[in-house]
Amino acid sequence: MTDASWNAPHVRCLGVILVGDAIAEVDDRGEPIHDDTLLVLLNAGETAVTFTLPAAPVGQAWELVLDTDGGGLVRATGETPAVCELVGRSLAVLRLN
Predict the structure, then answer these.
(1) Which terminal residue of the chain, N or C, has fewer Cβ atoms less than 10 Å from its own Cβ?
(2) Is the pLDDT of residue 17 over 90?
(3) CA distances from residue 9 to 5, 13, 46, 52 in whole angstroms, order as listed
(4) How far apart are CA 28 and CA 14, in angstroms?
(5) What are 48-67's pLDDT values in tens digits?
(6) Model pTM score
């Protein structure tokens, strides 16, 4: 994104995926470090935003871990791809399970 894109007044949401099996470090025994894959969704705007979730591998699904709205702000539609609605001024963290 350009500086202008980051500072645009209508851009107030962001989604970040942290891939747990892409960690390029090893533990004390030289074994690769693996962790959970997390999806962080942020909405700093006043109105709800609908996010399209990345496709989950076969047999896995996105599980809600943290919800700052407290009212079930993530709505999985069952569609492919799945979408989630995030209310204004909130954050959600999902884990690939």
Answers:
(1) N
(2) yes
(3) 9, 11, 12, 22
(4) 35
(5) 888 999 988 888 888 888 98
(6) 0.79
HEC per residue, 69-87: CCCCCCCCCCCCCCEEEEC
In angstroms, how far is the first alpha carbon of the chain from the final one? 30
Tokens encoding 2: 């350009």
For residue 35 the two structure tokens come to: 């962790």
Q: Which of 7-11, 42-46, 71-75, 92-96 has the lowest mean pLDDT?
A: 71-75
Cα dihedral sign for 25, 97, 55, 6? negative
